[in-house]
């Protein structure tokens, strides 16, 4: 019997929890919870959280990438927790944590986490419903609230990243010597139709987003099985974006095909369209899913090569390679904790968005820590320190008699910094990436008599909404055009920068961070 709990006095008011015992009817042939069923539970829990905050019906707009870390067996309990991290004007981000519980051995482990975007259903006259802001209560909520703006930024450029990578990169074809033994992609093609019935719809008579995702997982699994002739395991799902709603009575047409097969994994593309009667097909969703096949020892098996169809098949084949590169970049840069990421990650156009995300979110997370210790104070300038896992961070804080937007403009231009900061002897702009991101080479004095230089990615952000600070984040990167030289000691910066918050009477609270 499912159990759904709502808030208590100490809980986040938007927090919703769902617990489900995995029954045989929820499982696949391995007696493990099917991913489709899990996605339906995730979507339902997240929707309840969104509606609790909005006070009105909500619709799933998108679901970020999901990486499934563990499987769940029949008889175990799935615990899902969802809460709204941040509300923007008419959309909100809901964070979801999924864990598994073994009742007999009292063991718990994490299965996955996800971020979903929900929007309120328009009013009867077609107007969007504005959302009230979220007020973070804990350090963790403050971090999620702050970084949600960066995740939203990445979502908005997700499709452009793929296009840019395909445009700027010379992606290699598969090994042509293997084409004769390759499986024709057309053999993996799947087409299936589902009729949307009342049990598939929510209280607004729209098809559950989780139900559509479950149908898409089903056809993707069939396509993957046709390539490997085995039972594949779904490892990751790229971002789901719902392009339009579906209602009771719709026919949902689902198409899937293996886009590309790598050594130990394959990407399956899925497209969902809805139609009624003789009406036109409406494209409602597309997704890309990565599958593996495990041997008896739990190790990934080598997969057959794929031979793409001409034209469209070749395009999908190339785009799958691009998406794999992006997944590796995300795993390398974003999925790790800040201390695990190498100091100077190589910068290149394909990973710029994720390096910028990591740069700004790392500074926001550092600023949100609540265990800073006041070390000294002089002339209304306060010095704080924070020690975490043998890493010492500093925060210098003062209120300045200058508007925040003016302070932001002055500090964001690093080339002016040598005129007022004695630690900056020289600063040159290497590359103007875009309006918010820049690459600099900075030269500073060194106590050893040899000058020190840094290659820095500077990322600046204006406030996303009222109460947000201006942010200027700095971190070291490496560039093949600017290798270390004997004339300088190459320095590295893990996390540094400024936050500037608008204060009263055209003053601003400025904080400088360094790690």
TrEMBL record:
Keywords: Cytoplasm, Fatty acid metabolism, Hydrolase, Lipid metabolism, Repeat, Serine esterase. GO terms for molecular function: carboxylic ester hydrolase activity; lipid binding; long-chain fatty acyl-CoA hydrolase activity. Pfam families: 4HBT, START. Residues 12-124, 186-297 form the HotDog ACOT-type domain. It is found in: Cytoplasm. Residues 369-515 form the START domain. PANTHER family: ACYL COENZYME A THIOESTER HYDROLASE, ACYL-COENZYME A THIOESTERASE 11. This is Acyl-coenzyme A thioesterase 11-like. It comes from Echeneis naucrates (Live sharksucker).
């Amino acid at each position: 019997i499912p159990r759904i709990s709502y808030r208590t006095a100490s809980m986040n008011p938007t927090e919703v929890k769902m617990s489900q015992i995995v029954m045989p009817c929820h499982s696949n042939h391995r007696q493990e919870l099917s991913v489709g069923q899990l996605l339906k539970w995730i979507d339902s829990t997240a929707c309840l959280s969104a509606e609790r905050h909005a006070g009105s019906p909500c619709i799933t707009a998108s679901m970020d990438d999901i990486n499934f870390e563990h499987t769940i067996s029949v008889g175990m309990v799935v615990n899902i927790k969802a809460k709204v991290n941040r509300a923007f004007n008419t959309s909100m981000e809901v964070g979801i944590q999924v864990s598994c519980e073994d009742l007999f051995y009292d063991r718990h482990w994490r299965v996955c986490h996800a971020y979903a975007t929900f929007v309120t259903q328009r009013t009867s006259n077609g107007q969007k419903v504005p959302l009230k802001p979220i007020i973070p209560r804990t350090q963790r909520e403050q971090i999620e609230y702050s970084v949600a703006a960066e995740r939203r930024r990445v979502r908005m450029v997700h499709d452009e990243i793929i296009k840019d990578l395909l445009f700027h990169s010379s992606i290699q074809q598969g090994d042509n010597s293997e084409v004769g033994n390759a499986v024709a992609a057309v053999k993996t093609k799947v087409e299936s139709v589902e009729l949307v019935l009342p049990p598939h719809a929510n209280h607004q008579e729209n098809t559950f987003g989780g139900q559509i995702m479950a149908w898409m997982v089903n056809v993707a699994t069939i396509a993957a099985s046709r390539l490997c002739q085995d039972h594949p395991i779904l490892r990751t799902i790229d971002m789901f974006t719902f392009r339009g709603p579906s209602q009771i009575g719709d026919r949902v047409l689902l198409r899937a095909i293996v886009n590309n097969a790598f050594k130990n994994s394959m990407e399956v593309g899925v497209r969902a369209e809805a139609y009624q009667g003789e009406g036109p097909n409406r494209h409602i969703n597309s997704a890309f899913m990565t599958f593996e096949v495990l041997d008896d020892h739990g190790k990934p098996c080598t997969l057959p090569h794929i031979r793409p169809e001409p034209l469209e098949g070749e395009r999908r084949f190339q785009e799958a390679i691009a998406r794999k590169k992006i997944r590796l970049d995300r795993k390398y840069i974003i999925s790790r904790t800040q201390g695990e990421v190498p100091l100077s990650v190589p910068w290149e156009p394909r990973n710029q968005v994720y390096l910028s995300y990591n740069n700004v979110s790392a500074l926001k997370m550092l600023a949100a820590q609540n265990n800073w210790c006041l070390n000294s104070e002089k002339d209304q300038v306060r010095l704080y320190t924070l020690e975490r896992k043998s890493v010492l961070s500093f925060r210098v804080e003062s209120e300045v008699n200058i508007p925040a937007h003016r302070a932001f403009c002055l500090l964001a231009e690093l080339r002016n910094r040598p005129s007022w900061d004695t630690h900056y002897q020289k600063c040159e702009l290497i590359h103007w990436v875009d309006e918010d991101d820049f690459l600099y080479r900075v030269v500073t004095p060194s106590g050893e008599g040899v000058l020190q230089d840094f290659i820095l990615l500077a990322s600046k952000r204006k406030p996303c909404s009222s109460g947000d600070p201006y942010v200027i984040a700095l971190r070291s990167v490496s560039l093949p055009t600017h290798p270390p030289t004997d004339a300088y000691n190459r320095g590295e910066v893990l996390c540094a920068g400024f936050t500037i918050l608008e204060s009263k009477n055209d003053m601003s609270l400025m904080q400088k961070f360094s790690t």
